[in-house]
Amino acid sequence: MKTLLLGITLFVSALFPTCARCAAANPALEVVVLGSGGPRPFGRGGSSFIVLLDGTPRILVDAGPGAFLRIGELGLDLDNVDTVLLTHLHIDHSGDLAAFFNARALSADGPIVYRIFGPDGAGQFPKTSRFVDLLVGQGGAFEYQKTFGADESFTVRDLPIALDSPRSKIVDEKGLVVEEIATHHGDCPSVAYRISYKNAVVVFSGDMDASALPNLAQLAKSADLLIFNCAVLDPPASPSQLYDLHTPPKKIGEAARDSGVKSLLLSHLAPDVLSRDDAVRKSIRASYAGPVAFASDKLRVPVGRQATE
Asked: Which domains does the chain have, with CATH numbers?
C-alpha cells in the first residue's frame, strides 16, 4: 500500500509540478477516477471517470457500478456534463448509466441535451443507441427518467467496431476534440477515446486485448496521459482465457513506449494485480521509462498545461 501511495504521489507530481502559480489555477484538463475496479466486487467502483475542462465537469467516460456513489462523495457538479463516452457495454462499465442520468437530472435547472457515443452492436451486445433506448426510451426500463427532474434528450452515435476502421473525430468544438478508434475485447464490441483540450491530451484504452494495440498506439501518440485498464498479470499468471479480453503488463509497457505517451495510469484493477504491483511495474518498465501509477477511486489527476497559461 505504501508503494502504491508513493507511486501516485510521484506520478501526480510529475504531471503537475507544485508552484505558487499552479496552486491557484485549475488545470485545463483533469481526470477524476470514479471507479478503478471491476468486474468483481472487492471494494472499488466499476470503471468510470469524469473529465473536467477548466475545472468544470464535462465528460463522463464509462459508468460502472459505484459511479453514482462516488459522484456524491466527491460533491461533483454535474450541471455541465453533456458528453458520455462508453468504451463498451459490459455491466462493470455501464451499469450506473441510468443512475448517472438520475443524478444529473435532479440537480438541473433546465432541459438537458446529451450526446452519447459508444460501440456498434454485435452478437449478444446491442448497439449503443439501442442500449440507451432500452434504458430510457419509450417502453424502456426507466422510461420515466426522461422527464424526472428535468426534460432530457439524447443524441446517440454508434461507432465502428472493426479493427480496420479508421480513427475518427467525433467532437470538435471550442478547443475540445474527442477522437475514437475501434479496439477488441473478446466478443464485446469496444472502442478507445482520445480527449484533447488546450494542448492537454488524455487517452482511455477501455478493456482490450493485445490484438488491438496498433490501433491504441496510433490513438495515444504523444498523449500526456494514457489510462490503460490492467486486469491481468503477465502469462501464465492469469487464467488463459482472460488474455482474449485484456492486455498484460508487458504489452502495456510496449504500447506506452510505442505511442510515446508521457505518463501511464493503470486502472480496472483486480486484487491479484494489486498484490503484485511491484512485478507489474517492473514488467512495464522493461519497455517504458515514464511515470507509472495505479488508480484508486476518487483520485484526481491534472493533465497538461494550466488553464490560465
From this structure: 2-297 (3.60.15.10)
